[in-house]
What does this fold into?
Amino acid sequence: MGVNLKQLSEMLGLSQTTVSRALNGYPEVNAETRQRVLKAVQTTGYRPNRAAQRLATGRAGSIGLVMPIAAGIDSDVHFGEFLAGLAEESVKHDFHFVLNPSAPEDEEATFQRLAASGNVDALFLAYMRASDPRISILKSLSIPFLVHGRTLDGPADYPFLDIDNTGAFYDATRLLIQLGHTRMALLNGPDYLAFSQRRKKGMLRALSERGLSLDDRLVNHSFMTDEHGYRSMQRFLVQDNPPTAVLCSSTVLALGAVRAINRAGLQIGKDISLIAHDDVLPMLKPENFTVPLTTTRSSLRAAGTRIAARLISRILKTADYPDQELWRTELIVRASTGPAPRV
It folds into this structure.
């Protein structure tokens, strides 16, 4: 059985107030004392009384998230990986999640209720749309928030962390053009999401620089699942003039695309090239595909960890992070890309 606050403070020779302040990140507690307290907490299994902690600090020790749930919305392994990173950082500071499911049309009201409840210290917003009314709602609330992604309309005058989706698919398309490909396909995420539009924009920019275009019949927007990747790739391959290369917005979509390509009797990297965006999903490593995949890479788990660190530091006032961050992706060339086949 764990110790209580009084016993822990006596064990350390510190006042209960000092122990409490060390656990709650007050800056006046020096680093050495905070480390002593945290080590003792790990050793003894001490768990603070959250109700008492909330009364003492005015904080709930929680981050609020809204999960869109509705018929037709598939479960998302990408969001699960992001949450893993968020959780890794949150548990270090004894922060909890308040995960509130909501129908998409009720999300704005759900955020307002969460903020008014007093059960969360900050809010997190994901699945950014090209034009997103949730931003103005969050800006009107007296509670910190952070956005994963950016809208397309208007200035990004809010705190965010995003990756350079446009640059990622621009670089990927340029690689394919350098290899001689002129007819390419795009397996993308839902068309109403900002990251999908930015990735398509990057692809179109690279094509237009070389006087090339993207055939609308070779573009598919969908939830990023294996089945969607498989069915869409099948449709592309039976056209009179099929693509010689394809860009996929996730390795999950690529998994289905590879299955369709293999069933068509084509060889990846020779008959058709493929580049995927790699969110660094532990169960789906691009280097473990039968033909290792060329990818643009940025870790979703790392993004989750960073967002948790930024939110918690904002709540505890313990560190100074940049308000807006745009991460570049890595282009990693493997065997799935090769010269365009000769006609």
Q: What stands out?
A: Residues 142 and 275 are 43 Å apart (CA to CA). The first helix runs from residue 5 to 12.
